Each structure stands twice: as C-alpha cells, then as structure tokens.
Amino acid sequence: MCGIMGYVGGREASSILLDGLRRLEYRGYDSAGIGTIDSKHKLNVVKDVGKVEQLAQKTELGGLRGIAGIAHTRWATHGGVTSENAHPHLSCKQEVAIVHNGIIENYLELRQELEGRGHRFISETDSEVIAHLIEEVYERKKDLLSTLIDVVQRLKGAYAFAAILVDAPNVMVGARQDAPLVVGLGKSENFLASDALAFIGNTDRVVFLDNRELVLLTEKNVKIYDFAGNLIQKPATQIAWELGSVSRREFEHYTLKEIHEQKDAVLQALRQDPRSVDYFVDAVQGAGKVYLTGCGTSFHAALLAKLLFTSYAKIPVEVLLSSEFEQYEGMLDEKSLLIAVSQSGETADVLSAVKAAKKMGARVLSIVNAMGSTLVRESACTLLNNCGPEIGVAATKSFTAQLMIFNMLALRLGHRDDELSELWSTGSLVEKALGLEDQVREMTERIHVANDFYFVGRSIHHPLALEGALKLKELSYIHAEGMAAGELKHGSLALISEGVPVVVLNPEDATYADTLSNASEVKARGGRIIGVSNKPSKVYDEYIEIPAAPPVLYPVLEAVPLQMMAYYAAISRQQNPDYPRNLAKSVTVK
Ligand code: G6P
Fold it and tell me: What CATH code is carried by the domain that includes residue 487?
C-alpha cells in the first residue's frame, strides 16, 4: 500500500527519494510524487498517477533541487486516482508539504473547520488536512515540536506522516500512530520511511518508531519525542537485510527469484533462538485455548498449523480470520493464547485482531517475516521467518518459511524430537521440486487458457489447495477455487465438464486412496486431472512428481509447483506477476 520516503542531508534529495520510491513499488500503488525545498526556500512538488518510472521521466524532476525532501507512493483510499490526490500535499500558502499513510478518520470535520477559517483544499484526500493544520499551528507557534504536538492531538485514526516546511528548510519531521515509520541513520544524512527497504542501499542502522512518537531530523541529528513532547532515547538496530537481497539478480521477476530462494528459506526458518521456541512450546502447552489468526496466505499457513497441532500433538486449535475477528468479542480470556501469523507484520486486520485479543486479556505471540514491524512489537514473543525481504506481492517464500516453523513447533509439542532432524532435509527436497520448473512452465503454457481451475486435497493438503487457488487468482487473474477433496461431490462437481483442469494434491500418505477416488470421480466427468504426488497414477492426465518425503514436509513441496504454475500462468497471460492489479503487499487499511 502507500509508502513514505524522506531524506535530509548533504546530497541532492530528489534522486535519493526516487530510488527509495522504486524500492517501495512492491507494496502496490497507483500514483507517486516527490517534494523538496530548494535554496531559495521554495517548495517544489512533482507528482502524477502511474508508475515511479513515469515520474522519473518527467522533465520537471530535473529541476527539483534541495537537500531535504519527502516522497510517496499512493494506493487510493479517499479520493480517486488523480494527480491532485497524489502526495505530497501542500498547505494553502505552499509553505508545508506532507506525505501520509493510513486514514485520518476525522478529516471531514477538520476540513470543514479549516475551510471555515479560509483554507482552500485542492484534493479529495483525508491527508491534505495535515498540511493545512501544520501551516496554521506553525504560524502561531513558530516552533516545530510544539506544532507537531498540537497537530497530532487533533488527528484521529491510524497514520504515519512526514512533513517539510519552508521555514525550516534543513529539517524533516514525522509522526507515527498505528502505521509504521522507521528512521535510517546515515553519516551526515538521515532518512525516514514507512519501510526500511526504501533506504537500505544507504544505511542499515535504523530506529523503529513506536506509536505516539514524533521525530525531528536534520542531517546531523535525530530527535524522538512522545506525543506529550518528552524526549525519548531509543537504541538503533542494525538490520541484516543487504541491498543484494533486494535485487532481482538473474531472475526476470522477484516472484520467481523468491520461489527459488525457498531452498534456503526453509532452512533459515528453522534457525530460531531455542529460548523463543521453548517460550512458544510452553505457552501453547499452558494455554487454556489456542487460537491462530492471519489473512490471505498467512491464514492458509495457520489452517495447516491447526491440522499439525491436532494430529501431532493432540492440541485443539481454533483458526480465526483476522478480518472477521470482531465476531469473537468476549470469546477469548486471560487463559487464551493467540498466535498471529503475518509476513509483513503490518496488516491492519491482523493488528486489529491482536488489539482485540489483548483487550480480552489473551497472550499474543507471532510468526512474522519483517523484523521491527508493529506485530513484533505487539507480541510477547516472535519467531521470525528469517527469509529476507519478500518483494513480490504474492507471498511465496514467507509461506513455506511459516510452514517450516509450524512443522518444528508441532513436532516439539508432540514430543517427536527424533523427527525434528528430518526437517533439515527440506532444503535439498525443495531444490528437487524446483527442478520441476520446465515441466510446470510447459504444462501451464498449454492449459492457461482455461477459465476456471480447481485445486483439491484432503487433510494437510487442503490448505495447500486453498493456497494454490489463491496464488493462481492473484498472479494470473484466472478464476480458481480450492477445496477439501471430499467436498467436491457435495456441489462443485456440478461445474466439472470436458477439459476443466483440477489440480489434485495427493502425495502418498493416509489420505492417498480417498483423494485418488475423488480424482477418478472428476475424470469420469471429463475433468483434466493434474496430479501432484510422489506416486504416479493413470488417473492423472498431467503428472507433477514431487520427491518422496516425510509426510510432514509434503505441503512445503507441493507449494513449489503450485507457485510456479501461478507464476507461468501470469507470464503466459502477459501479466506482471510481481505487481498484480488492485493488490498490495502490505494491506494497512481494514
Ligand atoms: C495481502 C497480500 C497477500 C497476503 C496478505 C496477508 O492481501 O496481497 O498476499 O497473504 O496481505 O499479508 P501478511 O503480510 O499479513 O502475511
């Protein structure tokens, strides 16, 4: 979704900001803009709808001079996709520019009030009120900190913003309330962004702001305050992500690169601090009731975890969709444990589920990829995926990393320590599965013309059927449905006719024979069966052979060809798999 980048230092801000915007592209956006203050104390803004590359081509950008600036990628919420609605937004006298993520809930009321005092608004956004408010308060106070303290008292909602003022051309300011904001500490230059990836090429020393914190940055100084104006000392963190891990290397798309990275990612996920794993195990064993929550792909990982915890450790688990969490008001209590699963750690639905669970007294743990994210900070303990930045909008390596963490926890909870060592074979098994790429590409090129796909599997393969369908929808825009194989005959079989592709997830385990019968029922009605298994069968029209493995690992191995199918379906249909239309990597609105 929306992305913020800000710079103050000795270099020309616009090119650094543009680079930052390029790195924020993966979050999903529909317009972009940059604003700087020049030596004549004038604010200059270039913004438009469309891609960052289009912005980079604009001749006006060459004229953007200045050593302090802010930039933004916008994913429209309030107001259409127009250049007026793109950020930065200016105050009436063009003395303040702001970029903003999140939603100002009381913006209509504030706008009315400001208009009543003569302010003229240009955009339809909720964000613009911040620029006008800062201008008005600053005129009175002539002091940045007290202006910010006043302004944030007026704003309701979830937000992070950065602002520059002509009156203080060497300063950038920001505030955070329920939306991420990270400071990057450089040498005689400092950065402010919604995501450390934006400035990772310049510095890896960061300070994560917490809720209700303000920041004032100059090229030499960073000062952080709470909303009451008290100065706060916060430690800097060295982040492990390197610039290399954000490059596409030899791959045509990030998504393909990240699919390939899974052979290492599945092992990285196992490299956890033993004390944190013990903490999780104790918390699950000691809980009155265990709940899991997440959205999208992370929800599918949680569904699989439920089956693993139940079958390996006989621990019943309830999985609640984060976006539906409000339904469960009063259901959790002090004895409840909620494990929240999220790649980004910033998904608004997940964070609001966590807030609600805490309010009911529950303990919250999490499984997250993005270190320093809000979810990590809201959790009593976190197991990090350790799989590096995931840029492709559709989750791939973060999903299999989540599965590996759940495999490890389930085996620990079930006291099956002898099987734990088998998890380390996953790297080479995934490497074998990656060898299916040519076959999956060739098959997908033949069948991508179908309008509908079905994915079926039983037990632990059911969440993978859901995930296979989600991946195909997200990347290729082909309609797809995933379901429990046994449910086909209770309705969806009516949709099967000649040539309809049905992906059957059927490795050799306890579910094998029943799933094969379901595949035969489909075949008898003309369906085209794509079998994903370690055991061939004449029922399959297409056979994708994954390596034989300990049963607990099959979902991870199935994920690889399913992701490749979705990727090559997107390529065959000439869609960009990295940035699917209408979707965002990190959905920071409910
Ligand atoms: C968005 C993405 C999905 C992702 C979901 C949950 O909708 O497009 O691919 O699965 O968010 O994201 P999270 O970061 O919480 O795992």
Answer: 3.40.50.10490
